[in-house]
């Protein structure tokens, strides 16, 4: 099933690319659009911990959308997780459903991969499913509030089920300027699983948060934010941090 989804994603990307490069488009491919970005970050900090041990990261993102709401995505980044792999490569398939002009629902499948990871370690790759709801125009015409639930049946290092509840709020406070805040709660299968992942068996869950703002100038996005979590303060990669990123969208 996993391989079939990956092949379907790659096929969709190939079809869309061919569509974009062809001058005389066939009606069969009408309705497809592509977008993407390249980003430089001072740290790849995700869900409460650094995946590059505080070092910079370069990331690429490619997305193909269809007018029906279906989409496929690719994401790649360097990583430093001491697992024998120096790259993260993720595949996504999803569907956006516009309830009305102010409310959207989303379902998504994600396949998270670390190519070249040490085969003597427990499996580092995992699958994740999510459902999300996004509302627009709560306090201003363009602000957004998003709630997302993530579920992994077999998380990183084969540590069993993982649940994540995430809330994000974006508020455009001036032309091209946006402030945002995000809070996430992460629940793992057991204290033993938490020990494998975060080097302590005193917990089985943690929270993380991010607050910051960005400025968009001609599709160059300048982003500055503060991140922290209560994973395990004895771990250096879970320290709080101030991160800057520069993204070019296309």
Quick rundown:
This protein is mainly beta and 250 residues long. The protein is 11% helix and 54% strand.
Give the CATH superfamily.
monomeric porin ompg
Number of helices: 2
Q: What is the name of the CATH class?
A: Mainly Beta
- How much of the sequence is in beta strands? over 45%
Low-confidence stretches are none
Q: Could you name the CATH topology?
A: Porin
Mean pLDDT: 92
Total E-strand runs = 14
- Helical content stands at 10-25%
- Biggest β-sheet: strands ordered side by side in the sheet: 1-4-5-6-7-8-9-10-11-12-13-14
End-to-end span in angstroms?
32 Å
Radius of gyration, whole Å: 19 Å
- The number of domains is 1
Q: What does the overall shape look like?
A: globular
CATH architecture: Beta Barrel
Helix/strand class: mainly beta
Features:
single chain, 250 residues, mainly beta, Porin, 12-stranded antiparallel barrel, 2 helices
């Amino acid at each position: 099933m996993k391989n079939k989804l990956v092949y379907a994603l790659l096929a969709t990307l190939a079809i869309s690319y061919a569509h974009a490069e062809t001058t005389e488009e066939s009606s069969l491919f009408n309705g497809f659009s592509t977008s993407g970005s390249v980003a430089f970050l001072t740290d790849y900090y995700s869900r409460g911990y650094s995946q590059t041990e505080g070092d910079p990261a370069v990331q690429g993102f490619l997305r193909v959308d269809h007018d029906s709401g279906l989409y496929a995505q690719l994401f790649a980044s360097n990583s430093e997780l001491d697992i024998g792999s120096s790259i993260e490569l993720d595949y996504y398939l999803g569907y956006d459903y516009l309830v009305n002009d102010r409310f959207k629902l989303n379902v998504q499948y994600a396949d998270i991969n670390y190519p070249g990871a040490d085969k003597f370690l427990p499996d580092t790759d995992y699958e994740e499913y999510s459902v999300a709801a996004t509302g627009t125009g709560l306090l201003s015409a363009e602000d957004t509030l998003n709630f997302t639930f993530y579920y992994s049946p077999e998380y990183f290092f084969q540590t069993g089920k993982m649940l994540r509840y995430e809330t994000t709020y974006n508020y455009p406070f001036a032309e091209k300027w946006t402030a945002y805040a995000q809070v996430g709660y992460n629940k793992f299968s057991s204290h033993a699983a938490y020990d494998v992942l975060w080097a302590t068996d005193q917990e089985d869950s943690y929270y993380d948060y991010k607050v910051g703002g960005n400025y968009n100038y001609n599709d160059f996005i300048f982003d500055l934010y503060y991140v922290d979590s209560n994973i395990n303060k004895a771990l250096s990669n879970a320290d709080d941090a101030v991160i800057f990123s520069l993204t070019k969208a296309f």
